[in-house]
Specification:
about 350 residues; alpha+beta; Phosphorylase Kinase, domain 1; Aminoglycoside 3'-phosphotransferase, Chain: A, domain 2; 2 domains; five-stranded antiparallel beta sheet; about 50% helix; globular; disordered N terminus
């Protein structure tokens, strides 16, 4: 039986990639993200480069799902990395190489007008996924299940409670933990009160690549699924990795609504609920990465995520907003309104 790639030394994975996708002048592992997948850049002897995605834990089922996501997104003209080849023994997919210039990095050298154009394009892409992708996900479609509905939303909020609240923060007050559980139930009820829409699932500035034009390329799309309305827009404009300036948030929201239709997110209370769940989920992921996988670098994003979660809590309005804000502050969230977006 072939051992999973995550159990193999990096040199072994490199040899497998060279043998299957070569001949190659160079094979190098790219920086790890917040998943268990491995990404390798292959510089081919004949010229050109490609990126191999190795998914030992997900296996062939994960490769099938990624291929289905690629086919659907390309069919609705979303600029995702094309799948060039596949090997089930590694298991890996060979992807079109869209480069290294992340939107998160490009912002540092762009003018204000260029930044607005890029965030507008990102908002348009997110809106297109929701508008044109959702009708394609019939019951029999590979992306129809799992969906980000009640069960999975509860699981993500429990993940936050276990790995961040109890694990990283050491909260053991049973009354506080019960209040958090009750509030998590309220979040799930709000997010599942409307029909779900197709979402990239991790649509943020580190999964968008700036290409000549300038245009955007979309990567890390293998987890596309049906999710609560506004999910990708909330991921983009309430992003702990890169908290966009208000002008960029507004441009992305405008472009999203122009493409997908519906109200402005500022006028829809559901947006704040979705943004809140998304940031609590992110904090749970960062805590897990640091405590369980030893990737301490992820803790640097927790303060920004806390501020964004507090902003979303206040956006709920009324008693729900006040109670949510009070609960997060009791959990020890960093509240620095001076650096939070207006």
């Amino acid at each position: 039986m072939t051992p999973p790639a995550e159990a193999r030394p990096a040199a072994t994975v490199e040899r497998l990639l060279r043998r299957r996708f070569g001949p190659a002048r160079r094979v190098e592992r790219l920086a790890a993200d917040a998943s268990v997948r491995q990404f390798w850049r292959i510089e081919r002897t004949a010229g050109g480069t490609a990126v191999a995605c190795v998914d030992a834990r997900g296996g062939t089922a994960a490769l099938d799902r990624m291929q289905a996501a690629c086919a659907l997104l390309r069919a609705i003209e979303i600029p995702v990395a094309e799948i060039l080849d596949r090997d089930d023994r590694i298991p890996a997919l060979l992807l079109e190489d869209l480069g290294d210039w992340l939107l998160a990095d490009a912002l540092r050298s762009q003018t204000g007008a260029e930044q607005r154009a890029l965030y507008g394009e990102a908002g348009r892409i997110a809106g297109r996924i929701a508008r044109l992708g959702t009708p394609e996900v019939k019951v029999e479609h590979p992306l129809a299940w799992p969906m980000l509905a009640k069960e999975r939303l509860r699981m993500e909020l429990a993940f936050f409670a276990v790995h961040d609240v109890a694990g990283r923060r050491g909260v053991c007050d049973q009354g506080l933990l019960r209040a958090l559980a009750e509030f998590s139930g309220a979040i799930v009820a709000q997010l599942t009160a409307r029909p779900l829409a197709l979402a990239h699932r991790d649509f943020h500035a580190r999964n968008l690549l700036v290409r000549p034009g300038p245009l955007l390329g979309v990567v890390d799309y293998q987890d596309a699924l049906l999710a609560p309305a506004w999910y990708d827009l909330a991921s983009l404009v309430r992003d702990p990795y890169v908290v966009p300036a208000p002008a960029l948030e507004d441009e992305a929201a405008r472009a999203y609504v122009a493409e997908a239709g519906g109200p402005n997110p500022a006028a829809d209370p559901l947006f704040a609920w979705v943004a809140l769940q998304r940031d609590l989920k992110a904090i749970g992921t960062y805590a897990f990465q640091a405590l369980r996988l030893g990737r301490e670098r992820f803790t640097q994003y927790i303060p920004a995520a806390e501020r964004l979660a507090l902003r979303a809590a206040r956006g709920l309005g009324g008693d729900a907003g006040r109670e949510a804000e009070a609960l997060l502050l009791r959990l020890g969230f960093a509240d620095d309104r001076r650096t939070a977006p207006a």
